[in-house]
Structure formats: structure tokens, C-alpha cells
Fold these 4 entries.
Entry 1:
Amino acid sequence: MNQALLENLARGAGSIASYAAVGVVLMVVGFYVIDLAVPGKLSHLIKAERNPNATLLATSGLAAVSLIVAASIWGSGGRLAEGLLATAAFGIVGIAVQTAAMVVFDRVVGISVRDLVKEPELQPGARLLAVTHLGIGLITAVAVI
């Protein structure tokens, strides 16, 4: 096999692994930020109680972070170091804005994440906040590009 091809494949695989690692770290951070917003342990609400509201809020938050990570990779133009830094920075901004949106919806609109996750049935407010998470992720992702 051609040496240049092997080097290119190794460099590409290293880049993928680096972006994946930053993406996973951001998704874990996003999960724990949501965990701070809900009463009890988010993982317990999802695994043991099978709470659909907690699950929807967590999955939409993680999907939003994933959109931001993907856009950051796209916008990096192949510059790995700059791309990784931008991915981390924009991911943190996206998580912060999602958190702020949860607070705003609680205080201004009267939809409380804390109250939603106490409900055993899927609530319309959880759907609204989930779409808000995705919207914020999409807006941030497009701003990155």
C-alpha cells in the first residue's frame, strides 16, 4: 500500500477520534447540566423510572450539542487544532444557551423542568422544551458555519 495513503488514513483517523472525544465530553457535560436542572438523578429518572419527560429533555439536549459539534467540524476547514478549539468553545456556548432557555421558560413562560420530570406521562411542556433545545442547537450550528 502507498505510504502517503497510509499516512493520510492515519491522520484522518486521528482527527475523527479527536473530534469524537471532544463531542463525547461535550455531550457528557450537557447531560450533567440537565441533571443539575432536574430534581433527583437524571440517569435514575431515565433508567429506573423510565420518565419520558426527562428522557426527551436529555435526548434533545444531546442532539442539539451534536448539531453544534458537527457544524464546528464542518466549519473548521480541515484545520484540526482550530476546529477542536472551536468545537469545544461553541459546544459550551450551546450548552449555556440551552440552560438559559430552560431558566427563561421556567421564569417567563411558567414551564418548569423540575415540575415536568415529576410527571410520569409525557407532557406538552417537555415537547416544547425539546424543540427549543433542538432549535438552539440548529441556530448555534448555522452560526458556526
Entry 2:
Amino acid sequence: MLSNIGIPGLILILIIALIIFGPKKLPEMGRAVGDTLKEFKKSTRELTSDSNDDKDETKS
């Protein structure tokens, strides 16, 4: 779905977001999305490492 957007589509989405949310709110939203993704990746890594530890324990 997102592979067909391209550069012009991304620019249009950013312009619309800037118009809707304003220049003050947009950086805050971007920071919040970045923090959320970072936490999600951290949790995913912890879950996969836990499952890998469980597999190693069952093999022993």
C-alpha cells in the first residue's frame, strides 16, 4: 500500500499535516511517534530475546 505513494505523495501528506496541525504541534507529534516506535522496537527485542532464552533452556 505505501510502496505506491512516492516522493510527491509524501510531500503532499506533509503539507496537509502541516495545514491541519500547525507548525507548533507537528514536531511534538513527530517526537511522540518516534518515542512510540522506539518503545515498540525495544519491547519486540525483549520478547524475542526472552523467547530465544526459553528455547535454549528447553534444548538443554
Entry 3:
Amino acid sequence: MRYLLISCCFLMVSCGSYSKKHQLTEREISNKFITNPYFSDTSQDFVYKANIQVYDNNFGGLLIIKKIEDGNHRVVFTTEMGAKLFDFSITETNFKVNYILDDLNKKLLINLLKTDFKALVQERNLVSRRYIKDSFDIYKTTILGKSHFYYVSDQLDQIIRTGHRKEKVHFLFTDINNNIANHIIIKHHNINLQIALKSIQ
């Protein structure tokens, strides 16, 4: 029983908040929702030159993101010659694999890509906490059961997915014009997975 209590206490401490570890100052919630504007225009396809590094493999090509309608996006990754590597449909309530190359068809990888692309394209998320640090307003929300912190200055600069007080995945948006992030990096800290995107529009 003593061991169980000690283990529970240790778990509670180790799962302490990311906000305390990174000395974020809590403020009153001013907006009920946080918005990601980067893939919100249904009138255009968002086309990026893409490199996906997963373990010891590199896959290069084009990533096309299309908003079909509110809460509904299509994400397709092809070689530059047009051969499809994966094709996902992402809605507010569903993630569908329309196609995936056999070399990428691993359950763990699909789940990682699911959470990454869901966070990348989801437009509106309910805010549970608001913080400030330096020049950032920081909004905590939950996507697919995982905590995400949105760092906002004049625009959305970063999203950080956390777990057990640590940064698990870092989304970095740079070179932003007209609500388009021309450079995007998605880097996992606990496994060798990185997605680098550069707009070619």
C-alpha cells in the first residue's frame, strides 16, 4: 500500500503542468476559441515542397492540403512525379486513410501522422487555459485527448504538444503572409520524425 501511494504521488508530480515547468503566467480567458487560420480558405489548394524524415528514411515530394468545407480537409502527399504516398481525409470527428504506401503503412506512424495533421489543419479549438510569457499569448487546448499550447504574437507562431510536462511535438510557423505559413516544421522530440514544408505557391 505504501509503495502504491508513493507511486501515485510520484506520478502526480511527474505529470505536473507544462505551464509551471515553463513559468507561464496564467491570465483570464479572453477568447473561448483559438483559431488556426493557415488552411481555412476553401478557394485554394495549399501546396508545399515536403520532406518527411521518419527513423532512417527520407521521403520527399509535394504535400497538398485542401479545405473541402468547414471542418473537412484533405491531405495528400505525392512524389514530384505524381505518385501518391499517402492520402488522408480529416474531419472534426473522423480520420480516414484513403491510401498509404506500404512502406509507411505502420499503425504507430499512422497514429502520429493523424495527430500531427489534425493539429495542423483544425481551425477552431476550445480554450481551457490562457497564459502569457514574453511577447506571447499562450492558449491551452486539447486535440485528440492531447494537450496543445498555441503561441500567438501577431499571428500563430507555434503549437506545442505536451505530455508529462515535456514538449513532445513542436510545430513552427514562419514566413507568414496573407494567412499562409510559407515554412512549417513539425518536429517530434521523443522519436525521429520530422516534417519540413516549404510553400511553392
Entry 4:
Amino acid sequence: MVVETEVIRHEYLRHDKKFPHVWCPGCGNGIVLGSLLRAIHELGLPKDDVVVASGIGCSSRLTTYIDFNTLHTTHGRALTFATGVKLAKPRLKVITVMGDGDATAIGGNHFIHAARRNINITAVIINNSTYGMTGGQYSPTTPYGSKSTTSVYGHVEHDFSIAELAVTAGAVFVARGTVYHAAQLDKLLEQAITKRGFSVVEVISNCHVQHGRRNKLGDAVTMITGFRDRAVPVAKAAKMSAEEMRGKFTIGVLCDVDKPVSSEEYDRIRQESCQLPQ
């Protein structure tokens, strides 16, 4: 295991670039980075065949550190850039890394329509319930009553669930993991990357510096171990009442279905139209 970790570290990181990284000590983004690299390594994907796109935010800095074809794009637009890459070069394995605000606030329409179209892209969404990089403002996943720089007396809006939104919008594979359950996260990412169509992995993570500090949730270790206590496997949750699930969330695979992939359908229509009599 130590040898494999060394191989992954030397093979997939840009050592001469932006290290040391910008993430706060204890941030879950580093756990997600490691999990993504292990998943790609386990799948044996050639680096030149992988494209990772990100938007703007703490989590989106991940593309700076990994040695693949990468795009560090504009806020909320990772999926639009990724869609262009996939349409131009269908053979490439395209992955996006986004934060909860990046993906579901300014990028919300892109997210739901990418799911609806079933574009062959994997979306990794790191959900830390806040805009961490820009000062701790509330995001679409900030819990009701929480304090932030834009809700100093308590958040009056209700949060929504990214994973359930993805299922409803039409994604063919949807899973949720946490930065505590790193081994499980590796496997969820492997499944998502190999799935044909639009796949989503929501990763519950911590921002102890912004969200955690303002809401007295403790340090990084306390927040991360808290995910262990609140996470319930999907199969177990199905047998629990709403009262038993209060304050908890499901982890595992929420959806795994098959649908026609839009980029392949587009190519089919294009080929057929070229054969029509002029």
C-alpha cells in the first residue's frame, strides 16, 4: 500500500507547480484529491485520455495539482467547458470537480441540464455547505439556521440535497460519500467514472475555518468524525423512519440506471443526416 501511494504521488501530481497547496490544514479537499487519483489509477486510465475541468472555489483548485489534461475555468461553468471537450473529443474521459456553490448556485442550470441531457461526463461535487474561498457566504446547501457572513443572524432559507436533485434531473448514476469514508469514496468514484452517461458523486466535506467556526462545529477532526456518526448507508436508511433519519444523510449509490447517452445520440444523428439525399 505504501509503494502504491508513492507511485500515485509521483505519477499523478504536478510537483513543480503550485505546491505547497492553498487548502487550509485539515480541509477535506485533499482527501477527495487522493481518492480521485486512486480511482483513476485503479482503473488504469492513461493520463493523456483524462480531462479534469473545474470552476472557481477552494475545491476547484484541485485541477492545479494533478497531472492530467486540465481546465481551470470560470465560476459555475466547469460543465459547459467539459461538454465542449466531450463533444469535440468523445473518446476522452471527462471529469469535473466543483463545489456546492459552484455547481448548484451560479452553475445550477448547467448542472440540471447536463443531467437531463445525459452527457457522458462525471461530476464530482464537494459539498462543504459554504463558499469557503470567498469569505464564508451561505450556499444552496447551507443548513437552515446556520450562520455565515451573509446570514449573521441565522440562515432563513432551506438547503436542498445535491444528490437527490441529480436523481430527479435525470443523472444515470448518483452517489454520495464523505471525506471520512475515504475507502468507500474510492469505489464510488470508480463506478461513476466507468458509467456511461452523466454520473454524479456528491462528497460531504468540511470547512472548519468558515462554516465550522461560525457555527461552533469544532475543528477539522471533529467535523470529519461527525460525518461518520451522521452518515447512514442507503439500504439501512430505507428501513428507518423520518424521525430516525433526522439530522442524518444517506451514503452510497442512490441511482444506477441506463439511458441513451446524448453525445452518442448526437453523433448518430449527424452520421445519419450526412447520408440523407441532398
